[in-house]
Amino acid sequence: MTTAFRLCEPRDSEALATLFEQMQAHYGVPCPPRATILADLADLPPGNRILVAETGGGIDGFAAFAALYPGPGLRKGLFLKELYVAEGRRGLGLGRGLIAALAELARAEGYGRIDWTADRDDAALLAFYDKLGARREASKLFYRLTGAALVETAGRAG
User: Fold this and answer.
1) DSSP strands (E only) in 34-105
2) What's the pLDDT tens digit per position in 50-80?
3) Which of 5, 14, 21, 48 can bridge 101 by disulfide, Cβ–Cβ 3.0-4.6 Å?
């Protein structure tokens, strides 16, 4: 199987929308309408990019990431927001390939690190990241401001 790892292009939107829908179903979370997904893909916020894993059968995986600054040592870094490989294509090296392509992009563009989060109860996912040589950062906590708390906090501004 020949796989190309490359940054997404506008022509990839439909295939990415399908993978996004599959990912939401996989995690059992709500998914916006396809038209919303396509509109958001056409208007990614500045600094956000998506790598795709393209095989002869189409796009089978993606890594969505964004640039961060400042980081340790006042170096710029990347934050991997999502890594997803289509269910029938897992175990073929696409996830490792996407991470390797992201690491190469980071190195080539002068980024000093790649950060991401992982669900603590997903043993297979944690084992995958451990095998990559990634170090768990036990000293860090991940916070999320969403829903009513986001609205309430925004109401305190000014």
Assistant:
1) 48-55, 58-68, 77-85
2) 999 999 889 999 999 999 998 778 889 999 9
3) 5
Question: Is the predicted pLDDT of residue 16 greater than 90, yes or no?
Answer: yes
Q: Look at strands 114-116 and 4-7 and give their pairing.
A: unpaired
Show the tokens assigned to 73: 């040592």
Q: What is the pLDDT of residue 35?
A: 98
37 class by beta-carbon count within 10 Å (0-12 exposed, 13-18 middle, 19+ buried): buried
Distance, in Å, from the CA atom of 113 to the CA atom of 108, rounded to the nearest integer, reads 12
Q: List the 48-55 sheet strands across, edge first.
A: 4-7, 48-55, 58-68, 77-85, 114-116
Distance CA(85)–CA(93), nearest Å, equals 10
The H-assigned helical ranges of 89-122 are 94-108
Beta bridge partners of 98: none
